[in-house]
Amino acid sequence: MTRLPVRALTRLPAALPPAEAVLAVSGWVALAATTLPPALLPLRAVVAASFLLLCPGAAALRLTHPARAGHRRDPLEAAVLTVAFSIAIDTAVAEVFFFTRSISTARAVGAVALITSLMVLVPAAVRHRRRAAPAADRPAEGRPPT
């Protein structure tokens, strides 16, 4: 297992694909929605529930689905796995906070937002690093390889 250095996250491509950018930011939007005033409770609930039900699973599916290896992706399968992954991740985070007796909506949504963002940004940094690596590994002209 290769370790990803922390500095790799500072070398992200200038622009993520739109789907990845939306996934990376969605949790932070949901976390901001949890701070809305009580008069906007329906909006808070819709934003947070939509994020918790879809986004962590979508990020996990991008990491694990066989379509990454060239297999055809079935839309129904993707939808079911997205919801299942989301529920599993949300449950694991909620249990950690519950058993440490520190559960709150903001903490739970924040932790899931962080996990979701990392599942999007770390693979993007690795892809970017792999694309840049061949150029960096080549020796400069006139110098022997080190």
How is this structure best summarized?
This protein has 146 residues and is mainly α. It has 4 helices and no strands. It has helices spanning 18-33, 41-64, 75-99, 105-137.
User: What structural category do the secondary elements indicate?
Assistant: mainly alpha
The major beta sheet can be summarized as: none
Secondary-structure element pattern, one letter each: HHHH
- Euclidean distance between termini CA atoms: 25 Å
- The total of helices stands at 4
- Overall pLDDT, averaged? 83
Low-confidence spans: none
Radius of gyration: 19 Å
- Give a count of the beta strands, DSSP E runs of length 2 or more: 0
- Beta-strand proportion: under 5%
Helix content: 55-70%
- The coarse overall form would be globular
Task: Write a structural description.
With 146 residues, the chain is an all-alpha fold. Helix 1 packs antiparallel against helix 2 and helix 2 runs parallel beside helix 4. The mean pLDDT is 83.
